[in-house]
Amino acid sequence: xxxxxxxxxxxxxxxxxxxxxxxxxxxxxxxxxxxxxxxxxxxxxxxxxxxxxxxxxxxxxxxxxxxxxxxxxxxxxxxxxxxx
Length: 84
Known about the structure:
By secondary structure, this protein is mostly helical. It has three helices and no strands.
């Protein structure tokens, strides 16, 4: 998770915030990479519910959500991702 060039960018983002990987907890919305890199619309509600439960268990002081679709899914009260 977050390896290669994406990992370097993530590490730089953390460093800019005064953090490093040893001081953060990283979790993925999907247990495995979906085909084509995007989850199916019918999976949205269960993915959001599972991640909200996971966040509740970890109870972080701060939360950084990467990806506009993921942010929309987790922050939208109706659990819908828009077309744009």
